[in-house]
Write a structure and sequence with these properties.
The protein has a domain at 32-99. The chain is built from five helices and two strands, in the order ββααααα. It has helices spanning 43-59, 83-94, 103-106, 120-236, 240-246; strands at 2-4, 7-10. A two-stranded antiparallel ribbon has the order 1-2. Belongs to the SPF27 family. Residues 124-193 form a coiled coil.
Amino acid sequence: MATNNGDVLMLEAAPEATKPWASAANAEVIDALPYIDDDYGNPLIKAEVDRLVEEEMRRSSRKPADFLKELPPLPKFDFENCPVLGKEYERVRAGKPPVRIDFESRYKLELPPASKKNDDAAWKQYLQKNQRSLQQKMIELENLEMMSKQGPELWRQNNHRLEVFLTRMQKLAQEQNEEIEKVNRERKYHQQTTAYELNALSQEWRQLCMKNMEIQSACTVLDTQIDSYKREAAERGWNLEEKLESVKPLRPQ
């Protein structure tokens, strides 16, 4: 609590935690009564609040560029279990275009070079290679046929699972929204119920402040009169100190 000559100026905020994200106990508490506070609707008060906010933002050491520096660093992706994905990730980071798939060479039969046209071993090697490629294409065709037959049902099952998951998520979201709405209703009820007491206390505080100001003003007038009487007594040569000592104090009856 900051003081100046015994007068309370403001309540200092708690020291900032080193890791405010680590615990909910370090969360900032906003003291506001939004359901009954209508002062912000006043243009003069709104202008003053906006001015204080802008001033606080100018004096703040936290800039928009480093508002996430208190959070833990993001994990580094090494792609140890998927080197292909790692290469694609690096390609995207470097801004390089994707590698085009050469379908012509993929489905083209390979022949031995001209220098080995009369080599039976070379022809046999390329024949076995083309046979393996042909067998792979046949397997791919069988997979496509199976997909054309079984694929629609698999997609329907997958869509059904997604719909079930979506329904569950929507239910959870609805429950959360209902909890939020319940909290808001309770806050509104308590704030509106307490508004009468707060207004009465606020009015009483204003009246006490006015009384204190009136008492302080009356004391100031009395001090001025006393000083005036002292000056007048000094001009007449009266010794007020002796007279005041000779006066007996009044005793309560």
